[in-house]
Amino acid sequence: MAAFSLERVLKVLVFAALALTVCKGLGRTPEYASRVDSRRFFNGLVNDAENSLIMKERHLDFGDATAKAVRLRLEELERMGRTPDPDLVNEESLRRAVARRMAIRERDADYVVLAREKLDRMRALERDGWRMPLGLTPRAGATSGEAAP
Predict the structure, then answer these.
(1) Is residue 24 classed exposed, middle or buried when 0-12, 13-18 and 19+ CB atoms within 10 A define those classes?
(2) At 12, is the secondary structure helix, strand, or coil?
(3) Which among 104, 26, 99 is positioned nearest to 63, based on CA atoms?
(4) Whether this model's pTM surpasses 0.90
(5) Per-residue pLDDT tens for 87-133?
(6) Are 56 and 112 in contact (CB under 8 A)?
(7) What is the pLDDT of residues 42-63, one digit of tens each?
(8) In angstroms, rounded to a whole number, what is the distance separating the alpha carbons of residues 83 and 91?
């Protein structure tokens, strides 16, 4: 029986590490994962979409709660007869602040809608059993035989 040389053992170990890296890398591509481990693939997509929706809803709720707290504090100051320094807060700065807050609120509400749509798309992909095609996909409007850039 031939003895294994250190060089041969190292070559085998390097080859095994390379093969493992290729397998792990393939497992992260949608082409491979949607076919081989579809349950895990779709769980990942749906969980990501659910987490995104939760975070967007929390962000919207936080913004609303902050605006309510500021409004209550201003009402409290008014009841106490205190007003902000006119050099710090004037009508123009107040209008800009309100307009900015309204724009941020609208943007946050849009993000929640987009997150819900993403979650619905991911669930539809799972329900339909979608698989990413292997190879090149034709670009929109291309005749058959033309590959996407």
Answers:
(1) exposed
(2) helix
(3) 104
(4) no
(5) 877 888 888 988 999 999 999 999 999 999 999 999 998 899 888 77
(6) yes
(7) 888 899 999 999 999 999 999 9
(8) 13
For the chain, what are the domain ranges?
A: 45-128
Reduced 3-state DSSP string for 104-136: HHHHHHHHHHHHHHHHHHHHHHHHHCCCCCCCC
Torsion angle (degrees, nearest 10) of CA 131, 137, 143, 149: 160
Model confidence pLDDT, tens digit, residues 75-98: 888 888 887 777 877 888 888 988
In whole angstroms, give the CA distance from residue 119 to residue 53: 8
Q: How many CA atoms lie within 13 A of 41 on its CB side?
A: 20
What whole-number distance in Å separates Cα of residue 47 and Cα of residue 56?
14
Measure Cα distances from 89 to 63, 81, 97 in Å.
21, 16, 10
Question: Environment class of residue 130 by beta-carbon count within 10 Å: exposed (0-12), middle (13-18) or buried (19+)?
Answer: middle
Q: Could you tell me how many residues make up the chain?
A: 149
